[in-house]
Amino acid sequence: MEENGGTKEETPDITAPKATQAKNFLAPLTIFSFILSLPVLALVIWLLYMKDYDCEILLRLPRLRIGIGIWMIFVFLISNAVVFCRSRFPMPGLVAVMVPLLVMLIMGLALVGVSRTESRAIPASPMWLKLKIHDNNNWNNIKSCIYDTHICDDLVSRTSSLKSYDFSLKKLSSIESGCCKPPTSCVMEYVNATFWEKEEDEATDKSYPYDRDCESWNNDQSRLCYNCYSCRQGFLTTLQRKWTRLGIFLVVMAILLVIAHLLLFVATMWERYKD
Ligand SMILES: *[C@@H]1O[C@H](CO)[C@@H](O)[C@H](O)[C@H]1NC(C)=O
Fold this sequence. Notes:
Blueprint: H1 2-8, H2 16-49, H3 61-85, H4 90-112, H5 126-134, H6 136-148, H7 151-159, H8 164-169, H9 174-180, E1 189-192, E2 195-197, H10 213-216, H11 229-272
Antiparallel strand pairs: 1-2
The structure holds 2-acetamido-2-deoxy-beta-D-glucopyranose.
């Protein structure tokens, strides 16, 4: 029905072929814009119902996540409102949808960390995460939080049947490999995932540079490699990867929606003023 909206108020149209052309173009565009907004809705559900990544709460990130979720609901509603009312208010509709999409684009670019120096002020940007995690006060809390999640206990019980070689082939998450076991460069002998013996002979592998983490490693289950640099790095990598992905998604969706709305606007105007 909305396809007729634009032509209704105008005089009956004689240039029928052109009009049908515009209409042929408009209907798929409308459907396309609507379909494009569905991943945004899916993201909302993911953002609002996702379990917090363990220990992320210490950096107050869940609040940001909910904020982005609410913004996406807004984008979803306004995008579809504009799609379905475009024939009545094409110009105000375009402006109304472009502003939130622009905000979404900027938010995504910040999360991806395009501007390295400025983005340290923006929560969850790669630089911001790095600064937070390298802050020792934060790190002490995160460290004990990681310990409390029993991630290393789970790793041991999951891999208890594995021999040294099979364990070395196993794919570990960056937190598991950073916090639960000594770095590979320490050339320690595997007993189980969280118990490693120092090789007695002085045959240390000279091909690796000296790693302070090898000193930090302790077989005490409450210490393991939680004091290692590799553990911080593993936690940082996990968070950065997650937030960068979210950023990329926001950028891509914002660009696609901007293109869809511009095309829709052009098609609507063309249909209106074609003669
Ligand atoms: C890992 O090996 C050590 C040393 O043999 C042992 O004390 C510890 O209980 C083992 N851990 C598990 C979970 O099997």
